[in-house]
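haha ok so turns out i had the wrong file open the whole time. this is the CORRECT one, sorry everyone. sequence first:
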Amino acid sequence: MVRLRSALAVIALLLSSIRGYSAHLVGGELTYVCLGNNQYQIKLVVYRDCNSTGAQLDPESSIGIYDGVQPILLHNLTVYKGPTIPVPASTGNPCLQAPPNICTEYAVYTTTITLPPRATGYVISYQRCCRNATINNIPTPDDWGSTLTTRIPANDACTSSPQWNSLPPIVLCNQEFLSIPTSATDPDGDSLHYSLCNPLHGGGKSNGTGFTSPAPSPPAPPPYTPISFLNPSTPSNPIPGTPPLSINGSTGVLSGRLSVTGQFVVAVCVEEWRNGVLLNSIRRDYQFNVTSCQANIVAKIVSEVDDPTQICIGATVPFKHQSINASSFRWDFGDPGRSDDTSRLAFPTWTFSDTGVYWVTLIANPGWPCADTDRVMFRIYPPINPSFTHNGGPCFDQQPVSFVAQGTWYDGALFDWTFGAPGDANLAVFSGLNPPPIQFAQPGTYPVTLRIRSKSCDETYVDSVIVDPRPRLDSLIGPWVGCEPYTVTFDAGAFSRRTRSFEWDFGDGFSDSVEVPVHTYRVPGLYDVRVRMWTATGCRDTVERVYPGAIRVNPRPKVAMAIAPQRVTIYQPLIQVRADSVDADEQFWFDMDDSTTYAQQAFVVHTYRDTGWYAVKMLALNQFGCWDTLVDSVRVDPIYNVWSPTAFTPNGDGGNEGFRPVATGIRAYRLRILDRWGNVVFQSSDPQAEWNGRVGNDGAECPQGAYTWSLFTIDYGDSPVEQQGVVLLIR
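then structure:
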């Protein structure tokens, strides 16, 4: 088992080593900023080829700080990776577009450390292996790693290194004249000098973390080995071209015209000088992809064809463009009446000196070798703004309708009219300024279209002509008959195409303003009904209708009865019922609520056969067919009585298992049972509840013996009665 674990460990270490030095590095840079109080912020940037199958960016990196003269390690810093960020697919030349299959990403490793002034200064270094095997200008490229290093001057008084101003481009385009900024800024205002220099080797493919491992921890001390180039490449001319690739020592601009394609290592060094003394230098070690590029600047004016709203908008025109990758512009509006008819704005506005046809020119990125030009014709005329008026009334019987065109047009303009759909009017279409009077076939809403063509302008106006029928009331109200109170729902039967208002007079002093009112007549009589409707828009008119004698309200019979007495007992259940108000021509009945009725008897004596509540009704019907009902209640009480057993045997044999006093003629009941010591063993307000011989009916069994019961009741005469007794519990 030990041997197996050792073998697995060796395999894992080998795999880790293979992953560690897999080719993926594109380059990097190392800088620092003095924060004051001997605090320095160190910033490491590592670039990686996204399309590489090699290892990802390290989650942590080792940065070593050595004495500036002796190879003495002072600090070995472990610095953690920031977010992985893609490098924009830039060529460094806005005229050129990079191919889509090239990808570079980077991460920033930042840390802060206290470094007091040192007579020999400091050397800061980082190393990582390995580079892509596809690099063309160095031998066996995947055997070479990279060293990024910089210095803090001796006895430093808070100096910061130069800081790169921008990311390097992903692609250099061959057969194109390059002008690529690779400048830096010095926070201290020191002088900077740029040069193409040697990239430095660092790391290797050995296992572990030593100086020859893929990620040395700590990195090796100086001096560092320069990487040799394959002919004809050199550190100062790393990529073949005519003229060769070079850098401006003052500005840091890379220029030249490359004649090859492939991947090439380039190192740019920036020296920091103060008062003629070299303080420090930084180095950007980077792999450039050299490939064929395509021009990506396109000038495109948004023309009248692209945007028809630009046609005939008047002398002042807001110009728009849809150019691609353009950063500067030059417009020429082609106005011969003006000498200042140009603009450098991206979206200018120009007012032409006269109407007519003009050729407008746009140059995208003027002065660039890849500048593009677009030339478009614009027809400058005032808008027609067509519309029309008509003199026809809004009511159908006020036709025909005459139409008059309005707008701005030139001589020779063409006019086309359309009046609804075919068959809607006596004339469906007409060409000319003044159409004949139009007669629409029936009420409705009709779209009328006017199209005017003048010069190059072509505009259309659509509006609706509404022809309404006269408002009318089609309802038939009455004659309707009912008994008081008589509730009637009225419907005006109104017809109009516009919003309408109503006024109702119900003839009994009441009114309403809704279209379908509901009204209740409460006094018998004969009533006239009047309704008025009017419209305030469209075909405006007022319509009124009167319905004489539309509503007849008949009286109901006047019902009155007397009951005596209204409360009796079952021993004497006799009541008297008398009708107090009956007309000779009315029919009436008494309903005693026990299946007994009496017809046309003004006085009855009735005997009830059972206790309870009874609803006695008197019903009456008069000669108009109107009826009325009166209801009163009668109560027949049971007789008060209490009976109690003297013993019970809760032994589970199914007989005489429980105890309760039986009470009749009561409306309230409360039973309590006490043992011989006065403890309550059972109590209830339910007349049907029995004591089962247990405490509270669900507790422990009570012993055999005598128990006292106390019963409090209230009878139907509201008289309270309290009784006591003794019951014997036998087990």
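The CA atoms of residues 264 and 288 lie 5 Å apart.
again sry for the mixup
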